[in-house]
Give the backbone structure.
Amino acid sequence: MTAADTVASGNDGWARNRRRAWHIIQRWYSIPLLLTVWQLAVSAGILQSRLLPSPLAIGAVFLAQLSAGVLTYHAGVTFSRALAGFTLAMVSGLPFALAMARSAVWRNLFEPVFFVGYPVPKIALFPIFTYVFGFGSPSMVAFTALECLYPIVVTAYFAFGGVRSQLIWTAQNFGAGRATVLRRVVLPAALPGIFTGLRVALPLSIIIVVLIEMLGGSSGLGYYINIWSTRFAFANVYAGILMVGICGFVLDQILLLVRRLVVYWQV
Amino acid sequence: MKRGSAQILHWLVPMAALAAWEITARFGILPPYLSAPSLVLLALWETIRDGELVQALAPSVFRVALGFAIGTVTGIIGGLGAGLVPGLRNFFDPLVSLLYSVPKVAFLPVFLLLFGIGDVAKIAIIAFSGFFPVFVASRHAVASIDPHLVWIAKNMGAPPRAVFFRVIIPAAAPELFAGVRIGLAHAFVLLFAAELIGGSSGIGTLINAGEEWGRFDLMLAGVVCFALLGFGSDRILLLIRRRVLKGHLIGTQEQVLP
């Protein structure tokens, strides 16, 4: 045992705390470092651009807009649109994927629609959507649902199809009916795969909603960012971007939480 | 189910939809902005004949290809670096996790004002958005490589270069391609948005022009073109992947994935 080890074991708690603090600093130093450099560069006048206000200025605007309720309002609009589109896609897509996985007719009918359509950038259909549904919330929700539908259906289809037949046979052998097999065997076995697709679709929903709001909305964070950028108020633009990021982060965390509750047997 | 009837079913839904669209459009039941598919095809042919299509396609393809290439290459280099070097990992991880959840479209107005409405802004935003999925995928791929593989190679006396190119890259490749594919899909979303918001040429502009002139067949022809462009790029990527990952995909779900 070396001298250093003896000292370390002598005041063990203190050393461990210091190691943990050092570890946290090592893991997270880059964000405060960059923010400080950025702030100093702006304060020292090296970075003089209306396009890049200092982090403190952005933070001040963010807090002011947040407490004034402006950002929370727009965030609420964007959040609910994204969630509505996503939920619509999930509710309509999962039964569809199940039907495709369980029935040959459905599979043959709709496989090409989903497999060929999967890599097509659905955003191209956006002009048609604006004509059919207008620019309001229904249009955005419908379009978001369409975008989310593809990853959800394709991954869920593989998840349902990948359920081992032995599991189903065993359940049937024990006298389980169709509904029981579905609820107790197929669904739980497919859930981890389904959540993979949901996790792909969820950020997509925010992207699409923000984009459409930018192109022609009258509320929501995309609109907020767009309108302040035309007024060259970039502290507000960055505050809006920050809020979008928070929305995306919160949605993802909610999904992860739900997954942990639903797929509790998989860590 | 017999193969023949399966083939019929495959074509049934798209064909029925097209036929219904054509008939209802012909009888004037559909609103004018949904031109009949035959008219859209005619408009497409018209744009091909007088070179308008090539003129619109060239800048779009250039932007998406260059932006996607920059984003992918920097993403792979950054991701592999972060996966292999703890110092880089500690620096990049917090930044990437901070920016990853922000839809990159939100930065579009900033990029347009920063770089002007020319090609640079569009290429930059496509590269910016492509970087993140590729970075995350390649970083995760490297981190989750079975360490035994690396140990065995080292034990056999493989130099670091060989370990990198013969063990780490091949082992990381499948996941890497998944990230690249997501990046490609996002690239087209951003291309469309950038051309529609700050466009002066390209497919997005063709769509816009068709809309403004009330030439809805032209607008839809642009939409079809854009869709085909995205679809074609994805197919090319899958072809490349199939060549690169020869042997990796046997027996996996990926083998049958569209």
